[in-house]
Design goal:
Helix content is 79%, strand content 0%. With 271 residues, it is an all-alpha fold. The protein folds into two domains: 20-66; 69-270, Orthogonal Bundle (MetI-like fold).
């Protein structure tokens, strides 16, 4: 016969379904309302099925014209790829630098309330719009070219890294900050001996991830004219030069794979 203490332990280890909404009437009503909303949303899409049917032969023709890929204009391909890499590296570098003061000022446990609110407002505003929207704005201001893409990626990198940095500082154990402050240490010493050792690995890891993301995003912003290999891709599609478009797409895939490999290699050495 199983002892009573062991029986209680076994019953405590049994799996129980976790219910977010305990009231079954409210739970099933919410499910039905969600399904009804999805069906209503699907009915308002106004899908043009004849247009889709007509597009299938055009897609087949486009894919057929893509093969084999045309690498004869490799100089144009290489120039666009190098431009994208340069944009990603420069944007990641300046984003890492600008994110440090913005992230420090965005930590509520480190600065005064007014400074915190200003920094958080800047972070929120810079994260409000997608990179495409910001790239279109800079293209309108500075014209076509890599400058618009570089500024776009700098804003995206700064906002992303600073938000992660501020949240990491806020999630620190309060005892560490209080212990250093109790010694009468200045703010630079607080950064060097308390904050830096705890947030540096995470900061470097997030920055490397952002570099990987910037390589992909440099292609996307280039489609709207913000430089890089994406601009070359958009031009090839507009000329119906599909075999060269496939060569560009394969180059982009190789570039993203290299960025992912480099990111994993750096993160592996940080562990």
């Amino acid at each position: 016969m199983m002892p009573s203490g062991q029986s209680q332990t076994t019953s405590n280890l049994q799996w129980h379904r976790i219910r977010i909404i305990e009231n079954p009437l409210f739970r099933y009503s919410l499910i039905l309302l969600t399904l009804a909303y999805l069906l209503w949303s699907a009915s308002t899409l106004e899908i043009n099925w004849p247009r889709i049917a007509n597009g299938i032969p055009r897609a087949a023709n486009m894919f057929a014209r893509m093969v084999p890929p045309d690498f004869s204009r490799w100089s144009l391909l290489l120039r666009g790829m190098l431009e994208s890499v340069q944009m990603a590296l420069a944007a990641s570098f300046f984003g890492m630098l600008l994110a440090i003061p913005l992230g420090l000022c965005g930590a509520s446990n480190l600065v005064s309330r007014p400074v915190y609110l200003v920094a958080r407002t800047i972070i929120i505003l810079s994260r409000t719009f997608h990179e495409i929207v910001i790239a279109i704005l800079f293209v309108k201001i500075f014209g076509f070219g890599p400058l618009a893409g570089l500024l776009t990626l700098i804003i995206a990198s700064t906002s992303f890294i600073s938000k992660m940095l501020a949240e990491d500082i806020e999630n620190m154990l309060p005892g560490h900050l209080e212990a250093i402050r109790a010694t009468g240490a200045s703010f630079p010493k607080l950064l060097i001996y308390c904050i830096l050792p705890q947030v540096l690995p995470r900061y470097i890891g997030v920055s490397i991830y952002r570099l990987d993301a910037n390589i992909r995003h440099s292609t996307v912003v280039g489609i709207v004219g913000a430089g890089g290999i994406g601009q070359v891709l958009a031009a090839s599609f507009s000329r119906y030069d599909y075999d060269f478009s496939l060569a560009i797409l394969l180059t982009i895939i190789a570039l993203v794979f290299l960025g992912e490999f480099f990111s994993n290699w750096v993160r592996g050495h940080l562990r």
